[in-house]
Write a structure and sequence with these properties.
The protein has 4 helices and 6 strands. It is α+β, with helices and mostly antiparallel strands and 174 residues long. Strands 1, 2, 3, 4, 5 and 6 form a 6-stranded mixed beta sheet that branches. The structure holds zinc ion (2 copies).
């Protein structure tokens, strides 16, 4: 997990100013609970040892935030979960696509707007296209290891849907 708030700061600052002051520096002034917003992104990885490169459609990005409502200050820190290289098992460095960082920042601000300020549900922005859909290496993913990976969430959603479909089919037969 790597802190990379600066990749999102420009867009967040632009989007948030209407009603909030954004403070991407976390310190002891935040009292109470921190909240999390988890999102899926397409990410690029590169191994520092063997130069192996790959992309994932299931990159996990975590916004940790605290909203100081009275003063309208939003504390934000953004983290990206790494993946390990398949041949040499080393933690790889990553890059975000610029349009993905912008999209995630928009979506996060929408989420805050809906949750705390009664905002309308904006049209969902699609994630950058990827062919690497079913190629997630659970054992090489830091987010999977910590049980919060967007890939695991998607699997669980699909399993629920399948169980419900099976239930419906059984009901149809009986
Ligand atoms: Zn490698
Ligand atoms: Zn994962």
């Amino acid at each position: 997990m790597v802190e990379c708030t600066d990749l999102f700061e420009e867009t967040l600052n632009r989007e948030v100013t209407e009603y909030l002051e954004l403070t991407p520096i976390y310190d002891e002034t935040t009292e109470g609970e921190d909240y999390e917003y988890i999102a899926s992104a397409k990410l690029k990885f590169k191994c520092p040892v063997c130069e192996n490169k790959w992309t994932t459609a299931h990159g996990t990005v975590k916004f940790v935030y605290y909203l100081y409502f009275k003063k309208r200050i939003l504390f934000v820190q953004v983290y990206i979960y790494q993946q390990r290289c398949l041949p040499c098992n080393r933690m790889a460095s990553f890059k975000t696509y610029d349009d993905e960082a912008v999209r995630l920042s928009y979506d996060f601000v929408d989420f805050i707007d809906r949750k705390y300020f009664g905002g309308e549900n904006d049209e969902e922005r699609p994630q950058r296209n990827s062919r690497a859909i079913n190629n997630h290496k659970v054992l090489y993913c830091d987010a999977c290891e910590r049980g919060i990976c967007v890939y695991l969430r998607r699997l669980r959603r699909e399993q629920r849907r399948q169980t419900e479909e099976q239930k419906r089919e059984t009901q149809d037969i009986s």
